[in-house]
Amino acid sequence: MSASLYLNLTLPGPGAHPAAWRHAGFHPADLAWYQGIARLAERGKFHSLYLPDSLAAPATLAHGPAGLAAEPLTLLGALAAGTERIGLIAAIAPELSQPYNIARRLATLDHASQGRAGWLPRAVTDEERLNFDRRPEPDDDLPQEYDQVLRALWDSWADDARQVDKPQGTYVDTGRVRAIDHVGRHFRVTGPLDIPRPPQGHVVLAAQHDGPLAGSADIVFLNAPDLPSARAVLPAARRSGARVLATFSVIASPSEAQVERRLRARAGYGGAWQPGWPVLAGTPPEIASQLAPWVEDLGVDGLNLVPAVVDEDLGDIVDYLLPELRQRGWLDRDYAANTLRGHYGLERPANLDLAPA
């Protein structure tokens, strides 16, 4: 391992465990709860926070809020006002949205957060398609074209287009703003965008390792159940030069008895919990030892932590586990940048169509 690890927090409502809601007074649109979690994650120096999404009420609604989701871009806009450094990544469904609208909303979030916005394209379910008039057949090419349109719209403004020359009465140099005139298989978009180019140039693209646009993402979440499975898919996850973060749920406490109590309480609700990634439980040194093969041998670039029960587990992750990882030299002690691109060591893309005058 030659560099410090990157840290992302995935926030699936009250937690990844199906009974997480029983441990908290969770409401899917409780802004104060989300603000508290975001500030706690920022105190732990997480580089980013990812909000999943759903566009259909879950069939299991009677038994818990899993799958209920507040609209992530709206929520992240509010979280931007209460945080200063943590990156803010929203799940987006390209198949069920229009690129012009999403380009402007992501650009707005990037401006409002001073360069901390990211997006993660996701696949959709048949149940979600039933809620939309536009229900195209699933097509692997659609996310690629969607991403192409987003980038073209962000580049429809030169970085220096906004002049604000009050004596001359010139707000925008219209020669530095252009239409994109995109005509593709799935989208026809004239442009230009109605908001200046984002502070990051292009909003950061994240992806699940087996999800849309994984081959061109800046950040990839590797969701593997064990080390051999992760080793098998890691080369493909890295093919775009992405920062690859392995996904884990962690139940950490300095007290072994406390860990056992939590495990027993959650098992008592019945049903097997198999999230598709490792669930690590123990004291901070024990968990660090379990992570060591992933970090030191496999060489993942970071950790994507998905708390089983956010209200019970995240505080102990921040207060006990992360200091242990810092003591081992795996994590920086403070932020080294102010933008999401900066956190992940990503260059700001130049606008090749409208280079500086």
Regarding quaternary structure, how should these chains be classified? single chain
Radius of gyration: 21 Å
Number of structural units classed as domains: 1
CATH class: Alpha Beta
Tell me the β content.
Answer: 15-25%
The computed structural class is: alpha/beta
- pLDDT averaged residue by residue: 92
Q: What is the architecture at the second tier of CATH?
A: Alpha-Beta Barrel
Enumerate the strands of the largest sheet in spatial order, edge to edge or round the barrel. 1-2-3-4-9-10-11-13
The largest sheet, given as strand count, sense and whether it forms a barrel, is: 8 strands, parallel, barrel
What is the H-and-E element order? EHEHEHEHHEEEEEEHEHEHEHH
CA distance, first residue to last residue: 42 Å
Question: Could you name the ranges where pLDDT drops below 50 across 5 or more consecutive residues?
Answer: none
CATH-defined superfamily:
Luciferase-like domain
What is the number of E strands?
A: 13
Tell me, briefly, the overall form.
Answer: globular
**Relative helix content:** 25-40%
Task: Report the total helices.
Answer: 10
Tell me the CATH topology. TIM Barrel
Keywords: Flavoprotein, FMN, Monooxygenase, Oxidoreductase
Domain Luciferase-like: 30-265
Organism: Achromobacter veterisilvae
Binding site for FMN: 53
